[in-house]
Amino acid sequence: MIRPYFAYGSNMDPEQFRSRCPQSRVLGPATLADHRFIITTRGYASIEPHVGSLVHGVLTALTEADEAALDSFEGVRHCIYRKDSMVVGLDGGELTALVYVDNETAHGRPKPGYLERVLRGARHHGFPPHAVQEIEAWGK
User: Fold this and answer.
1) Which of 7, 49, 54, 75 gives the lowest tally of CB atoms within 10 Å of its CB?
2) 56-115: per-residue pLDDT in tens?
3) Is the Cβ–Cβ distance between 17 and 24 less than 8 Å?
4) What is the rounded CA–CA span in Å between residue 137 and residue 140?
């Protein structure tokens, strides 16, 4: 079974994602409406509801094995991240995708080296300049 997955953090970095999910297939850049990108006090990316905002990310097709690997990396069993289903935009259409959301909601600073992987992914997938700048601002 293949499941759409919306990545918005370091899993957008092609090298990192390929090593974690070798059977996955990138479908392309996508967006999540009425949410914004944040860094939590854990030092990693998450999203939070925010009317009028847009999170840029990457949609991939995950195999069951890839999803199991991501569950482990994202700490689902330990309630670090939770799995949600959200409607994302892709090529003018919409579809429901798996999204990992940190259970921590307080804003914080990125872990050393983390934001660079997120930015590498954003640039690799051709995010608009304003979206890259929003991510960069978390490092200042």
Assistant:
1) 49
2) 999 999 999 999 999 999 999 999 999 999 999 998 899 999 999 999 999 999 999 999
3) yes
4) 5
- At residue 116, what is the residue type? E
Name the E strands within 1-140.
Answer: 3-7, 25-39, 45-62, 81-90, 93-102
Regarding pTM above 0.90, the answer is yes
Secondary element (H or E) of residue 118: helix 114-124
Cβ neighbours for 92, distance < 8 A, ≥ 6 positions apart: none
* Structural fold of domain 3-132: Hypothetical upf0131 protein ytfp (3.10.490)
Please write down the long-range contacts of 129-136, taking CB distance under 8 Å and 24 or more positions apart. 131/54, 131/56, 134/36, 134/37, 135/37
Question: Do 51 and 58 form a contact (C-beta atoms < 8 A)?
Answer: no
